[in-house]
Design goal:
By secondary structure, the chain is mainly beta. The chain is built from two helices and eleven strands; from the N terminus they run ββββββββββααβ. The strands form two sheets. Strands 1-2-3-10-5-8 form a six-stranded antiparallel beta sheet, with helices on one face. Strands 7-6-9-4-11 form a five-stranded antiparallel beta sheet, covered by helices on one side. The protein is globular and about 45 Å long. The relative contact order is 0.24.
Length: about 150
Amino acid sequence: MKDGAGVTGASDGLDGIAWNVVGHTYTPKLLSNNAFIWHAVIPAETFVPPHIHPTQDEWITVLTGELEVEFGHTKGAPSVHKAGPGDVVRMPMGEEHGIFNRSGAEATCVFGVAPSRKLFDLFGALDGVTDPEELVRLSAMHEVDFLPPPPDAQ
């Protein structure tokens, strides 16, 4: 699927799609070869385990709530960065990162990656998957490499 010119409504996803990925609701908003953008609802006390995108730059614009993004899990103690409404988190290609909502409240944000590569297809494959080993296996097939979760992942 590639979307052309037009508007994706605030509550709409491309072709009516919304995915449940690691307990988050991801709604695709734009897909081209150059970029993939999606809206995310991230419930309190959920997270995306530490991982690396070896072929994509990624970013997050926080709309509501607060996220903690951790960098450098395999390099010792990770550096923790808090992001709130209006903040943009930059996660360059090859930079290990994990995304955590430890705020006690839901967060919403807009994610993007460039180039798109295989991430759209990965989210379709992960929709509703709850087994961590299957998540890791499918992700590796789609150019996302998960790292072991930190001991205090919650």
